[in-house]
Amino acid sequence: MCEDDPATTDKFEGVHIHYIREPGQGVHLLVLTLGMTDLDVLRRCGLRDLRDAERFSAGNVAYRDRVSFGFTGPRLTLTSVLDEGMAAIVSDTKSFGEDDGVKGLWNGLYGITVESYPSTSVKLAGLSPVSTDVYAIAAAFESRGSSVRATNDIGKSFPKWTLSPPVGLGGVREVVIEGFVRHLLRADYVLESTADYERFIGLLDSEYGRSERSSENGCTYRWWDSGRVSIRGEHCPGKSDSLRFFNDVAGDQLEQVAAKMDADKANTSDDPKKPAIDDDMF
After folding, report:
1. Where are the alpha helices (DSSP H) in 169-237?
2. Is the same domain home to 187 and 241?
3. 119 lies in a domain?
4. H or E segment at 259?
5. How far is CA 81 from the centre of its chain?
6. How many domains does one find in the chain?
7. Range of the domain at 146
8. Contacts of 168 (CB under 8 A, 6+ apart)
9. Residues 246, 180: one domain?
10. Is residue 94 part of a domain?
């Protein structure tokens, strides 16, 4: 399909190629490899009529990159959740939306349930925390006057930014943004004072409905919801006041990925020499 280019450092030499047939539906090509995070190797090799598609999908944290062949040809979608881990390229013939069979493959590979068109009315620096990639959100804060105080693991599976507050966010001392792959996972507003916290409570109650206060371990909490974003207010007397914005799509799928990894690890740790004992036999 594409000759090896010795001038590049691409390392995707070992792959597993599978054809998966769905009777009456179609055939999918599945290529498994390690450490692949984009499809630039295909873009560079001059394939005829190769077209770029989206590099972000709001409802799928594993989604990395996509190309298509012409307007009506097949699509190739790259997915992975760990930079050095397994990556999967899957083909389908859909012109828009996601193929149900491919979504099933992603569930089998990573344990995630892909969501269709998740949304929210919450905005962070003018952008949706659900349908915008986390790098664009961090850049939007910088464009509004935030300066970067620290970064961790940029370009990896769990990037993090610590920023000064932007213009138009009074009462905030610091902004912390954390991602999962290319999705926002959560964003924190660390507030200057309890008075600023009370001011934000009034604004959020007005925008998303009145919150109820709860207490735990000496701190009080409030919650607001808008679509697939949850907002938590936290007041710890004499210690801190903060707001945390959760992308529930990324959070739920991160939990699903972790559960799948735990289940896979448990399955591989079983001793094949031990005879099976069914749980309905005792």
Report:
1. 194-208
2. yes
3. no
4. helix 248-268
5. 8
6. 2
7. 134-256
8. 144
9. yes
10. yes
